[in-house]
Specification:
heterodimer, A: 277 residues, alpha/beta, TIM Barrel, B: mainly alpha, 10 helices
C-alpha cells in the first residue's frame, strides 16, 4: 500500500482523481466556474496524458476517476477515452448533455459495459427557468439526451446547481419527478449550490468556497495540479491560482504527496462542510 | 511577469507571504511555481540570511556580484540592505563599481574578498590562483564554502531577477533616493 493509498483510506484526501480535459464549451452558462465558452483558451490536457496519469493514479491507490471541463464531449476522442479510463477505474464524466447526436451516442455504447457514469447538468423542471442560466434550447436537448443514454444502458447522473437549493421545494420535487421519468433514480441526482468563483463571482452569485469547505481531491489540468475540481477556475480570463498545488502533474505521486501534506495540515474535523461535490 | 498577490497565492506559497504587507517580487513571481518556491526560498533564506558569517561580509559578496552581473533589481534592493548592515555609502558605491575599491576599503581581508568575488563572478572556470590564495588566507574553509554558495546563489538570483525584469519596490527606491544612491 502506498502512502497516497493510506491517505485515501484514512479519508485525508479524496479517492477520485480528477482531470480537466479542456476548458472550451459549446455553452456559456451564467455561473460557470471556468468562464467556459466556444472561443476561450482550450487548455486541453491531452488524451495520452490523461490515460498515463490515470494509470499512475491507479497504481498509487486512487479508487476512481473524474473528467470535467469545459465540455469534455466537444472533444472527438472523449467516448473512447472514457472507455479506456472506465476499464481502469470507475469513472465519472461531467457533461452539459447537449452534444449527444446519433453518431456520438453510437460511440458511447461501449460505456454501458463499464463502471462509467455520465453526470449531466439540469437545474430546473421548466425550460425557461433552466435555460435562463444555461442558454437557449439547453432543457430540450438534455431531456432528449438523457433517456437515449439510459436506454443504451449507460449510467447517468443528474447534477442540479442552484443559487439556493432549499428555496423552491415544489420546483425540486417536479425536477425529481422529471429525472425519475427519464430513468434516473434519486440516488443518481446530485444537488449542490452555485460556487462563487469564475463567472458566478463576476455575476455575484453563489456561496464562498475555500479550502475549509472543499474536500481535497487531486485535480489535474493543463496548467497544473489543484486542490479540488472547484480550484482551477477562471475569472476575467485569468486562471485562479489560490488552490494551485503544483505545476507538476507527472509523475502523479508528486502533486499527490503535496496534496496529502496540505490536507494533513487542515485542522481536525474541518471537513467539507457545505456539501459541494 | 505578473506578480501573484496574496489573494491568489497558491497553497504551498502562502506561508512565505508576509502578514503585514505585500510580498517581495521574488516571492510573488516564484509563486507561479509553488513546488519550486517552497524549496528555493528556504535555500535562499538560509544561504543569504543570518548564519555564522556576519551580514556585512555577505552583503559585500551579494552587492558586488549583483553589480558585476548588472542586475538592477538586486543592486537596488541590496544597496538598501548593505546600508542596514553597516556598509558606508562610499563602500556601497565602491561595491557597485562607481569608485575604486582600493580607494575606499582599508581592511585587507575586505579587499581580498572583493577580488575573490570578482574572480568567481566574472571568471570562466576556477578563480585565478593568486586571488584564491589571498581569499584562503583571509577565510577558513567553512567561510570559503559558505561565501562561495552566497556568490553562487546571488548569481542565480541575478539572472532570475534580470531575466524576468522584477520591479524594485517603491519603498526601496525612495530609500535610495534619500541616501543619494538611486
Amino acid at each position: 500500500m502506498t502512502a497516497i493509498a493510506d491517505s485515501i483510506a484514512g479519508g485525508e484526501i479524496g479517492g477520485r482523481l480528477w482531470f480537466y480535459a479542456n476548458y472550451h464549451c459549446n455553452l456559456r452558462c451564467a455561473y460557470c466556474l471556468t468562464e467556459s465558452a466556444p472561443q476561450v483558451n482550450r487548455r486541453e490536457l491531452g488524451r495520452e496524458q490523461i490515460v498515463e496519469r490515470a494509470r499512475e493514479g491507479k497504481e498509487l491507490g486512487f479508487t476512481s476517476l473524474g473528467v470535467t471541463g469545459g465540455e469534455p464531449f466537444v472533444l472527438d476522442y472523449m467516448p473512447e477515452l472514457i472507455a479506456t479510463l472506465g476499464s481502469e477505474l470507475p469513472t465519472l464524466v461531467l457533461s452539459n448533455g447537449t452534444v449527444f447526436n446519433d453518431r456520438r451516442l453510437g460511440e458511447m455504447e461501449p460505456l454501458a459495459e463499464l463502471p462509467v457514469k455520465v453526470q449531466i447538468s439540469l437545474d430546473r423542471p421548466d425550460p425557461d427557468a433552466n435555460d435562463e442560466m444555461r442558454g437557449p434550447e439547453n432543457f430540450r436537448k438534455v431531456v432528449e439526451a438523457v433517456p437515449r443514454l439510459v436506454e443504451r444502458g449507460i449510467g447517468v447522473r443528474i447534477a442540479t446547481t442552484l443559487e439556493d437549493p432549499e428555496a423552491d421545494p415544489h420546483g425540486m420535487e417536479r425536477l425529481c419527478e422529471l429525472h425519475r421519468a427519464m430513468g434516473v433514480p434519486d440516488q443518481d441526482h446530485v444537488v449542490r449550490p452555485i460556487v462563487n468563483r469564475g463567472r458566478a463571482a463576476t455575476n455575484d452569485m453563489g456561496v464562498l468556497a475555500g479550502l475549509e469547505q472543499l474536500e481535497p481531491e487531486l485535480t489535474l489540468t493543463a496548467d497544473g495540479a489543484f486542490y479540488s475540481p472547484f480550484g482551477p477556475t477562471v475569472r476575467g480570463g485569468e486562471l485562479d491560482t489560490d488552490m494551485l498545488v503544483s505545476r507538476t502533474t507527472s509523475p502523479v505521486r508528486e502533486p499527490a504527496k503535496m496534496l496529502a501534506r496540505i490536507a494533513g495540515n487542515r485542522p481536525a474535523g474541518n471537513d467539507a462542510s457545505i456539501g459541494i461535490r | 511577469m505578473p506578480l501573484i498577490g496574496v489573494e491568489q497565492a497558491p497553497i504551498l506559497a502562502r506561508p512565505f507571504y508576509p502578514d503585514d504587507g505585500p510580498p517581495s517580487p521574488l516571492t510573488a513571481s516564484l509563486a507561479h511555481v509553488p513546488e519550486v518556491l517552497e524549496v528555493t526560498l528556504p535555500f535562499v533564506g538560509r544561504v543569504l540570511g543570518p548564519t555564522a558569517i556576519d551580514a556585512r561580509t555577505k552583503e559585500i559578496v551579494i552587492l558586488r556580484c549583483s553589480s558585476l552581473m548588472e542586475c538592477r533589481y538586486c543592486v537596488e534592493t541590496h544597496t538598501a540592505v548593505a546600508l542596514d548592515c553597516g556598509l558606508s555609502p562610499g563602500e556601497v558605491r565602491a561595491l557597485r563599481g562607481e569608485e575604486e575599491a582600493e580607494a575606499v576599503f582599508t581592511n585587507p581581508d575586505d579587499l581580498a574578498l572583493i577580488a575573490w568575488v570578482d574572480g568567481v563572478a566574472l571568471g570562466r572556470g576556477a578563480a585565478p590562483d593568486e586571488v584564491t590564495a589571498r581569499a584562503r588566507e583571509a577565510m577558513g574553509h567553512p567561510e570559503l564554502v559558505e561565501l562561495t554558495l552566497v556568490a553562487g546563489a546571488t548569481l542565480m538570483l541575478n539572472r532570475y531577477c534580470s531575466a524576468l525584469g522584477l520591479p524594485t519596490s517603491p519603498m526601496t527606491l525612495a530609500r535610495l533616493a534619500e541616501e543619494g544612491l538611486a
